[in-house]
Specification:
By secondary structure, the chain is α/β, with parallel strands linked by helices. 38% of the residues lie in helices and 19% in strands. It has 2 domains: 48 residues, no CATH class; 149 residues, Rossmann fold (3-Layer(aba) Sandwich). It is built from 9 helices and 8 strands.
């Protein structure tokens, strides 16, 4: 163990890529203890990476795809699609594209603006966040068209993560983008937790409240979800 970094002299099995200022954090007293704490934090962050989590949850065995105990015979489907939305949907899609290989037909994920990574068979569209914008509606319409085009012998794998409500949306009849943006802004300022906000949001959009799944019927479906943070208990 070195006092400069708080790391073992031999290579550590836990990657330190997540904490970029590690050297600064371990300087001074208790460097060894600080190094151990950073190792623990790094290990936790590594476990939380969506791509790695997807590879733990899903694997390919020949023509069979196994997802958390559910088995899908890829040979029995005419098409296999990845259709998702959310800030964490792209790394999940990266993992799925690698796992599925040639069995993947096509896909689409909607992500936050500024994402530069591209995939082979899965398109990447950008949407507005934390407030929906015109790109969110375009992305929602494209996603809905793909879902509505699914047939009984299609398999849809759906990575849906945090931020989905804003990134892809289609206003309900009688509503427009201005109403959605104003409502989202008011909810963000209200002090409501994420689950309370989503109770309201799902009534504003043609993709929310289970409509995403209904739009893709009668296709078979498997989901990869990263849930929003649990509600925070507010003090009186």
């Amino acid at each position: 163990m070195t006092e400069e970094t708080g790391k073992p002299d031999s290579p550590c099995p836990v990657p330190a890529e997540f904490i970029r200022n590690r050297k600064e954090l371990v300087r001074g007293t208790h460097a060894v203890l600080r190094g151990h704490l950073l190792d623990i934090l790094d290990a936790g962050l590594a476990r939380a990476v969506p791509e790695a989590g997807t590879r733990r949850a899903a694997r390919r065995e020949g023509r069979f795809l196994l997802i958390d105990g559910q088995t899908y015979n890829l040979g029995s489907y005419e098409r296999v699609l990845v259709l998702g939305v959310g800030k964490g949907s792209l790394p999940i899609a990266v993992a799925l594209e690698g796992i599925l290989g040639e069995s993947l037909t096509e896909g689409l994920v909607v992500v936050k603006k500024g994402e530069t990574r591209k995939l082979g068979r899965i398109r990447v569209l950008e949407g507005g966040h934390p407030l929906p914008d015109a790109s969110s509606i375009r992305a929602g319409q494209t996603l809905l068209a793909l879902l509505e085009g699914c047939a009984e012998r299609d398999l849809v794998l759906a990575p849906v993560t945090g931020g989905a409500t804003s990134l892809a949306t289609i206003p309900q009849p009688g509503l427009d983008l201005a109403v959605l943006r104003r409502t989202h802004a008011l909810l963000l300022q209200s002090g409501a937790d994420i689950r309370e906000m989503n109770i309201v949001r799902r009534h504003l959009c043609r993709l929310k409240g289970g409509r995403f799944v209904l739009a893709g019927r009668p296709a078979d479906k498997g989901g990869f979800h990263r849930h929003p943070s649990p509600p925070q208990r507010r003090l009186p």
